[in-house]
Specification:
The two termini are 36 Å apart. The chain contains 9 helices and 13 strands. The protein is globular. The strands form 4 sheets. A 7-stranded mixed beta sheet has the order 2-10-9-8-5-3-4. It has a two-stranded parallel sheet with strand order 1-12. It is of the alpha/beta class and 365 residues long. The structure holds pyridoxal-5'-phosphate (PLP). The site of pyridoxal-5'-phosphate (PLP) has 12 residues, from helix 3.
């Protein structure tokens, strides 16, 4: 077995013990005589799996009782349409903070659907290099919700605070930072995330929603996107993404076994600090994200020379450090160092960066 360090932004690395556990029961789960992939989602064996997944996630994230946990499909992008359809009925309008590509897409989607949505703040002018300070006066007092993207996967920025906007529910896209550290769930109305960054294989979308917010869905909206329907049916209105939910359960078990999200946060901060400390100690590479907004999940950096960036990604890949090329829209490099990335992977990356800097002087390119 020759596993690489995979810095992909998503789908991304899964913890090796999780993959091994899944492999060990791939063909035959317990005494069921079949693979989880082959099970009826209505079977007692599978019911136990999805129930346990929810129980473990509730424990892991300390999710209050008045919040529903939904295991859905369609990716985070489907929630860009589902969020306004489920919530805008509260007051008929909603506000968005645009701090990167995904929050921009969420805003545009609501606009496209003809809703009264307003951009409360954006950092587009400075290339999405930081997270703005959001205060109550920036949000319309009668907004149904404020949508934010808690960790900006492409630009490598994250909120280091939760905006204090009174009673207006915050809806947060946490696709690339879910279960990376403790968050105070009760400060949010809705948290959603595509699972393929930090939680499970692709195919699963998590929605955590405060139950009083289930009452505002558009009467004519597609049933499949309606959170209330999914909540009333235990995420089983139709066939859920069974295997991805099972994998998520294994990931939750793995994190709880390590000590929970407090420990995960420490491990993630340690990895991120190794990389950022190196970046701050030299001048060959630049980290575009402002220090007070830096993500501990996605670390972006550039050499300032597109050819050199390309060479960097190619040579790193040859050394088993994969997928370091930045997002196609921004270029440069991005190291996604989610929960499953071992500390050793970041050590190897920093070693490689230092070697590359020494052996390839800029003027030689
Ligand atoms: C990847 C990502 C998305 C898109 O997720 P899909 O599941 O592919 O739709 C949305 N938001 C954020 C923050 C992401 O990182």
């Amino acid at each position: 077995m020759n596993r690489v360090f995979n810095f992909s932004a998503g789908p991304s690395m899964l913890p090796l013990p999780v993959l091994e556990k899944a492999a060990s029961e791939l063909v035959c789960y317990g005494t069921s005589g079949m693979s989880v992939m082959e099970m009826s989602h209505r079977s007692p064996e599978y019911e136990a799996i999805i129930k346990e997944a929810e129980t473990l996630l509730r424990k892991l994230m300390d999710i209050p009782e008045n919040y529903k946990v939904l295991f859905l499909q369609g990716g985070a992008s489907t929630q860009f349409s589902a969020v306004p359809m489920n919530l805008i009925g509260r007051t008929g309008k909603a506000d968005y903070v645009v701090t990167g590509q995904f929050s921009g897409k969420a805003f545009k989607e609501a606009q496209k659907m003809g809703y009264d949505v307003k951009c409360a703040a954006t950092t587009k002018d400075t290339g999405f290099d930081h997270i703005p300070v959001i205060t109550k006066d920036m949000v319309r007092p009668d907004a149904s919700y404020l949508h934010i993207c808690f960790n900006n996967t492409i630009y490598g920025t994250k909120y280091h605070y939760i905006p204090d906007i009174g009673d207006i529910p915050i809806v947060a896209d946490m696709s690339s930072c879910i279960i990376s550290e403790p968050v105070d769930v009760k400060r949010f109305g809705v948290i959603y995330a595509g699972a393929q960054k930090n939680m499970a294989p692709a195919g699963l979308t998590l929605v955590i929603v405060r139950d009083d917010l289930l009452e505002y869905a558009e009467k004519t909206m597609p049933t499949m996107l309606e959170w209330k329907t999914m909540a009333e049916n235990g995420s089983m209105y139709n066939t859920p993404p069974c295997y991805a939910i099972y994998m998520a359960k294994l990931v939750y078990e793995w994190i709880l076994g390590l000590g929970g999200l407090g420990v995960m946060k420490e491990m993630n901060e340690k990895k991120a600090a190794l990389l950022y400390d190196y970046l701050d100690s030299q001048s060959y590479y630049t980290a575009p994200a402002k220090k007070d907004s830096r993500s501990i999940m996605n670390v972006t950096f550039v050499t300032g020379d597109a050819d050199l960036d390309k060479k960097f990604a190619a040579e790193a890949s040859a050394k088993g450090l994969k997928n370091l090329k930045g997002h196609r829209s921004v270029g440069g490099m991005r190291a996604s160092i989610y929960n499953a990335m071992p500390y050793e992977g970041v050590e190897k990356l920093v070693e490689f960066m230092a070697d590359f800097e020494k052996t390839i002087p800029r003027h030689k390119i």
